[in-house]
């Protein structure tokens, strides 16, 4: 499990990324957090023995609460970790990004075409919320998203795998002007929360218990990732980076999809700002 994350984060699957210092810093941060999770599950000693290149850090007894995971649960964690690793590699490759949209709020969307993934979109924004508040809204309370985002009809958490991985089923809403139309998504979502950054990664999965639903086109999230970090000098604001990588499926021209996806990112960010404003008003 961990070697796959190391391989992906260090760019072995993307040879031209190996020399990027930003990627190395990101990889170290994410892998360090994953080691912490795995210590709690009681698997870290096996990995350290197997991969002697990793430095051994003995955890304190009070820090360990072994919660053995079943094989299928470990698979979800692995899928979430690998999705996050692939998405981070895409974000850290600074070459080839082209400006798509610049908004008055300062939000910027760029795009690039990645072999095997197609056209992906990167949104950069600054939000008036702390890193912890955004983590709570976007991951911990993900099932409440339909309450503030009208483009979502429902998000249901189907499985909780520890504190860092969930499996969700999402149904988009029927909204006027939606060029893509109503879709549903089955995803694994993985989080890595640190003092300086929060990473939220995910990708589409398949479950025999939940095949594509009649009346919906099942779209697929490719490896996708959100990075949240405090704004320099202001812990009450956060820099928000979102890689959107999606195959909407169905018989839609690419030109329509490539117009709709960055607009969906801007709409989501606008609704999120309204949610934050309403929260601060109530507070």
From TrEMBL:
It is found in: Mitochondrion. The keyword Ribonucleoprotein does not apply. One of its GO terms (molecular function) is cholesterol transfer activity. Keywords: Lipid transport, Lipid-binding, Mitochondrion, Steroidogenesis, Transport. Residues 93-281 form the START domain. PROSITE patterns: START. GO terms for biological process: cholesterol metabolic process; intracellular cholesterol transport; regulation of steroid biosynthetic process; steroid biosynthetic process. Pfam families: START. One of its GO terms (cellular component) is mitochondrion. It catalyses: cholesterol(in) = cholesterol(out). SMART domains: START (SM00234). Pathway: Steroid metabolism; cholesterol metabolism. May interact with TSPO. This is START domain-containing protein 1. It comes from Cyclopterus lumpus (Lumpsucker).
């Amino acid at each position: 499990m961990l070697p796959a994350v190391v391989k992906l984060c260090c760019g072995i699957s993307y040879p031209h990324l190996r020399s990027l210092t930003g990627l190395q810093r990101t990889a170290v941060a994410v892998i360090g957090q994953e080691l912490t999770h795995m210590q709690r599950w009681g698997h870290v000693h096996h990995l350290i023995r197997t991969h002697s290149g990793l430095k051994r850090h003995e955890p304190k007894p009070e820090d360990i609460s072994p919660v053995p995971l079943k094989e299928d649960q470990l698979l979800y964690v692995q899928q979430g970790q690998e999705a996050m690793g692939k998405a981070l590699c895409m974000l850290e490759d600074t070459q080839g990004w082209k400006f798509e949209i610049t908004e008055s709020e300062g939000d910027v969307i760029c795009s690039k075409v990645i072999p095997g993934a197609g056209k992906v979109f990167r949104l950069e924004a600054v939000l008036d919320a702390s890193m912890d508040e955004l983590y709570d809204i976007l991951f911990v309370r993900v099932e409440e998203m339909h309450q503030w985002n009208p483009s979502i009809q429902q998000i249901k958490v189907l499985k909780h795998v520890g504190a860092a991985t969930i499996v969700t089923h999402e149904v988009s809403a029927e909204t006027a002007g939606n060029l893509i139309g109503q879709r549903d998504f089955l995803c694994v979502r993985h989080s890595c929360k640190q003092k300086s950054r929060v990473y939220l990664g995910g990708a589409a999965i398949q479950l025999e218990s939940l095949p594509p639903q009649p009346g919906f086109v099942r779209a697929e999230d490719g490896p996708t990732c959100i990075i949240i970090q405090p704004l320099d000098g202001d812990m009450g604001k956060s820099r928000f980076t979102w890689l959107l990588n999606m195959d909407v499926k169905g018989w839609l021209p690419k030109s329509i999809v490539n117009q709709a996806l960055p607009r969906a990112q801007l709409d989501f960010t606008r609704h999120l700002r309204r949610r934050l404003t309403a929260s601060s008003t109530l507070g």
